[in-house]
Write a structure and sequence with these properties.
The protein is of the alpha+beta class. Helices cover 48% and strands 14% of the residues.
């Protein structure tokens, strides 16, 4: 079943407790900080019904003839991945900006646990059944699905039991209906989503004393006891004409407080099982990293477009020094694209019978996308020039007392008039030089994992056998050194 945008809006008008600053948000679908991004999410649903976009956004299940969302389809073939990539690109085209919580990234985390059903069976076979049911439900019920990952953590030099135990989400008791949990999680889009895959954060899951914290489940965002404490949104602060991205595609993050929330048994995927916690933390991004890197690819496109248009409107694109900087941005962009493409072309079977992007190439692509991101933003800022921080706002261009002067000094020729130039500079400012720009950079660096974890993923997924064998042969090493391979790799 494919929902409509209005059905999605109705689904989040459930009386949930949402706070922003000192305000209780009664309806996230109409509040100025949430409405623009809720409208984007609703439009994504409507794209599945629009004759002009539905063929890219959906597929027909041959088993029952139902039409479902392509983003939620279990990936079993290379074509599935090409289809997902095309659907996400189309969504970004319609959003006219970068939207992270499209749905395909977070649903991929559930596929990782789908691969780990043998681990879940160690606890209780019904948990493996639960993940199968929820993967199927994501396809057929089409909820707006997100991910609840990071806890407040508190003093990281101390175990959670040695401080306020609520610093990591944990089980406080069992009931006949399920488990009761307490703590908090941070999550993007939580306040206007339907459900979240809630799982343990990065921690020492080899320690059995952490058992109460080793819990994973599907969270209904309308559950009693949940509180959403949101950061202040960018939308609605200033006119959209001056900050077009901040006002359109700001995805509001929340601290989700679990004040003794009961999770029904059918939504529990594992609990008090540190091996399951270890498994999901080590495999969490084997699918979801693809969508994450694809977002950065679109961000690279925006930077190149903003930089090149700014160079063109002043004629600086003819200078070799400018062309070299543009080529650097293009190289960055194509490196990201190459890793995404290659990870599909040499995709590998997963333990659960799915097809996952080549893990070494995908995680290397994530590093290639994120490690130089701040440098690439600075390069794009250089190419756009200082006018992105000194250009007056749109109101000054409309004010009869100042409009004439601004029209005179911002018009370059008959092709580049003041209005177009102001719009370009406003978009570039919001992309590269605003509060939203700083937030976007930090979000990209840390949203899936901290930067050191990106490199750790490459280390654990790269095949070292080839280089080791090559050097052993070239150097003429004896077979005795093979005993050291385990330690070296």
């Amino acid at each position: 079943m494919i929902r409509t945008g209005e059905e999605y809006r109705d689904s989040i008008r459930d009386g949930r407790e949402v706070w922003m600053g000192n305000e209780r948000v009664r309806d996230v679908t109409t509040h100025p900080a949430f409405k623009p991004i809720v409208d984007v999410r609703a439009h994504i649903y409507d794209m599945a019904h629009d004759p002009g976009t539905r063929d890219v956004m959906t597929y027909r299940d041959p088993a029952d003839g139902e039409t479902n969302c392509i983003a939620n389809r279990l990936p079993r073939t290379q074509q599935d991945w090409w289809d997902k990539r095309a659907a996400t690109d189309l969504v970004m085209d319609h959003a006219r900006g970068v939207v992270t919580r499209v749905g395909d990234e977070t649903i991929g985390e559930m596929w990782s646990l789908y691969d780990g059903q043998d681990v879940l069976n160690e606890v209780d076979p019904r948990f493996a059944e639960n993940i199968r049911n929820h993967v199927h439900r994501a396809v057929t019920a089409d909820p707006f699905h997100v991910s609840a990952n990071t806890d407040p953590k508190g003093d990281r030099s101390r175990a959670p039991q040695d401080q306020d135990p609520d610093m990591l989400l944990h089980i406080v008791r069992e009931t006949d209906n399920g488990i009761v949990v307490r703590g908090a999680k941070y999550e993007t889009a939580a306040a206007y989503s339907n459900q979240a895959f809630t799982k343990p954060t990065i921690a020492n899951w080899g320690n059995d004393e952490m058992s109460d914290y080793a819990v994973g489940f599907i969270l209904d965002m309308g559950s009693p006891g949940l509180k959403f404490i949101c950061r202040d949104g960018f939308a609605g602060r200033v006119p959209e004409a001056d900050y077009p991205l901040s006002n359109r595609v700001d995805e509001v993050e929340s601290m989700v407080v679990f004040d003794d929330v009961e999770i029904p048994w059918e939504n529990v995927l594992f609990y008090r099982h540190t091996r399951a916690a270890t498994y999901i933390r080590s495999t969490l991004h084997r699918y979801s990293a693809f969508a994450y890197v694809q977002r950065t690819l679109r961000f690279a496109d925006l930077m190149i477009g903003a930089a090149l248009w700014n160079a063109k409107q002043t004629g600086l694109d003819k200078q070799q020094a400018v062309q070299e900087k543009l080529a650097t941005l293009a190289t960055y962009r194509e490196t990201i694209s190459a890793h995404l493409t290659a990870s599909i072309v040499v995709a590998e079977p997963s333990p659960g019978g799915l097809l996952m992007p080549n893990q070494s190439l995908l995680y290397t692509g994530r590093v290639a996308a994120l490690t130089p991101l701040a440098e690439m933003m600075h390069l794009a800022r250089e190419l756009c020039g200082g006018q992105i921080c000194i250009t007056p706002d749109a109101a000054a261009f409309d004010n009869p007392a100042t409009a004439g002067w601004l029209d005179k000094f911002y018009s370059i020729n008959e092709n580049w008039v003041a209005d177009d130039r102001r719009k370009l500079l406003a978009m570039a400012r919001d992309l590269l030089n605003s509060d939203y720009a700083g937030h976007r950079l930090t979000f990209q660096l840390f949203a899936q994992a901290p930067p050191f974890a990106h490199l750790a993923a490459v280390y654990h997924n790269f095949d070292y056998a080839g280089p080791l064998d090559l050097v052993r042969d070239v150097a003429g090493l004896s077979d005795k050194v093979l005993g050291e391979r385990g330690a070296a790799a």
